[in-house]
Amino acid sequence: MAEAFTLLFDAPLGSLNTLRVNATASCLATASDPDVLPAILSHERLREFPVLVLGEGSNLLFAADFHGLVLRPAWRSVRISEDDGRTAIVRAAAGYGWDALVDWTLAHGLPGLENLALIPGLVGAAPIQNIGAYGVEASEFITAVEAWDRAWCGFVRLDAADCGFGYRDSIFKREPDRWIVTNVEFRFDRQRRPALDYAGVREELAALGNTDPGPTQVASAVRRLRRRKLPDPASIGNAGSFFKNPVLANERAAELKAANPSLPVYAAGEGSSKLSAAWLIEACGWRGRREGDAGISAQHALVLVNHGRATGAELLILARRVAASVDARFGVRLEPEPRIVGAEF
Ligand SMILES: Cc1cc2nc3c(=O)[nH]c(=O)nc-3n(C[C@H](O)[C@H](O)[C@H](O)COP(=O)(O)OP(=O)(O)OC[C@H]3O[C@@H](n4cnc5c(N)ncnc54)[C@H](O)[C@@H]3O)c2cc1C
Asked: Cα 54 vs. chain centroid, distance in angstroms?
């Protein structure tokens, strides 16, 4: 059998991250089967290297070159592994496209992922920050995550309860050097009703003439909303929302709301509230501003954009300045959502 991986030394990464930062990696390994992971990781030229798993690079900022091994999972398969007519279990490979999975599940009569349509990236990255959009999170459907555990040097299967899922969070995000996600297992309930309560979804469906929409119509509406609201990485480099919405104690959130009545505040469970990071950034005057080729999108204040040749370091400087101004004006600390490679935030 031909080797199921390729190695490229001194690899350019500019086309492999959606912020289009021209970083390089000491080595780029592309694996077409998870079984070759042990061979790659113990390869004599690579075994001392730090490892970074790279999907489509849509949630990463390369603040510097990566002196190590960038590993790309390129195994792609999806199948229904169990089906009792009412619920079905789907096992999807880390290298399968996320939006392709949304379409695949809907085509197989399995609703649920429609609100997560058009999120860029691969299936293997979905559990890392527990991707979410329009009132739905991937963890609502994930039953298990299969991974290579670099601490134990073996393949493991983690039940969802052991994945530590939270708002844009999981154990995989907290221990990025440990896990290489190989497959993700999802459960779907064929009777599930679409989740329409998130702001804008119902209105978009109404505009399309759908008052009793099925999941496929919801996916179309979500795609239309996203195309309108978010800059397309194919046109301008970006990594989606650059900051998480800050979560504060209810009392503190109420104080801020009293002082700033138009600040959107949402319940976040257990005595805490989530604030709109976009509102805070816009209130500090950042929307549409640009420093060299690094900028804040004019379309959406939460999106850091690369107008052309910004380096990762320049983008990071701008992001830090945005966070510092929000902190100075509102006393709220913003945390970046993407992984910053090669620097601290
Ligand atoms: C325009 C735009 C809109 C977006 N909208 C949303 C949104 O609505 N909601 C949302 O949650 N996110 C959103 N994102 C962020 C991003 O699309 C998701 O986080 C996505 O899951 C990242 O997938 P990726 O394959 O590009 O991962 P990458 O960016 O390549 O990697 C992200 C992180 O996951 C790790 N990783 C990736 N694959 C694996 C693996 N197999 N095993 C272990 N670690 C891995 C990487 O090391 C890195 O730390 C958006 C991004 C863009 C550009």
From this structure: 12
